[in-house]
UniProtKB/TrEMBL annotation:
Keyword Transport: yes
Protein's recorded name: Sugar transport protein 8
Keywords: Sugar transport, Transport
Highest rank taxon of the organism: Eukaryota
Species this chain originates from: Camellia lanceoleosa
Amino acid sequence: MDDFLIKFFPLVHEKKLHALENNYCKYDDQLLQLFTSSLYLAALIASFGASKACSAFGRKPTILVASTFFMAGALLSAAAQDTWMLIIGRILFGIGVGFGNEAVPLFLSEVAPVEHRGAVNILFQLFVTIGILFAGLVNYATSSIHPNGWRVSLGLAGTPALVLFIGSLVITETPTSLIERGNDMAGRAALRKIRGIDEVDDEFDQIRHACEEAKLIKHPFKKLLKRSSMPPLIIGVMIQVFQQFTGINAIMFYAPVLFQTVGFKNDASLLSAVITGTVNVLSTFVSIYAVDKLGRRKLLLQACVQMFVCQVAIAGILLGHLKTTGTLDRGLAAVVVVLVCLFVMSFAWSWGPLGWLIPSEIFPVETRTAGFAFAVSSNMLFTFIIAQAFLSMLCHMQAYIFLFFSAWILVMGLFVMFLLPETKGVPIDVMNERVWKQHPVWRKFMDDDGPRSQNMP
């Protein structure tokens, strides 16, 4: 928004207004990128504290903490008078993201019945996509409010934070978390409540057995470095890295910038971002339906093909028709929007939700919060890198940036084909026996590092 740029990033606004601006470079500003990416750097650091909080206090209080930081970030951002207030507000948001992204997927995986675990966990990503859509709608609506429309946009982020805060007071703690912290009676009661039946002995015994084994591990982060922990750790981290190198956040963060680059005006570019947000939401429903029927691998591989074709096609159009000044003609600009939507569509039913589902279900209970913390922090690190670098990369690489991301998509497809096991329908607490010890590559790592009871603390 121009009012926002004038107040906090005047040099960017001047560059944007320049008569012969370079289409690819008009938003290339490190401070502007830091405003976006500081959230993810804060989330990276916070995710390790969130792991400790999840283990020591439970998933429910950790979600409560996340919502509190969200609300504080919204208040400070909306009231910002200087750039430092704006960035501190983003950092508070980032701490909330770190705590929320650690606790919520774990919470969902632990309360879901195994046959619906994929669909339930993807509800997390579904509501993320709904949040992105609402953000686009809010920005579109407030762009005509001068000079403080941006304050309304940033302040309204406190509304879902308040809903999350209230919800975190109402939800039931997960049975795994209660049993893990020695409260077996409350864990059994929670399991009965969640399942809606009285006969839960088999599942309760399975969870308690896993938790008893977990107690033998005094330092789960140290346990993660052992050979037998490498398969889920490598998968959990690489899935997050690949999720970012699809280029999705570059497109979603900067959709208005991208569409302005190819010739849309300010309002039209914001509206185009709303369109991509709508596609994102609707396509996530496909994943909810398909993930427990088709499995994780098929969705990921199909999406790699679709995303690769879209990225290469966008690069071809921009290389052939968009110069450093001027715009695309209306027809080609519309084609770019369609290709972006097709790209977002395939990501939304694959790497988006499965990037959170797979790491939340593959770690054994003794390293679950620690392992998921590594996954979350990897996601935040590479989100930070992409967010901090994208506008500069767009300036220097121009349309070749889409070929850069398409090359990564090829690597991702090969990784899934040869190294990612299928986890559909496998109970979380028997993942080692049913998945890792059966996989032709990862079974070589599963020597258990000796008897569990002899693990050094």
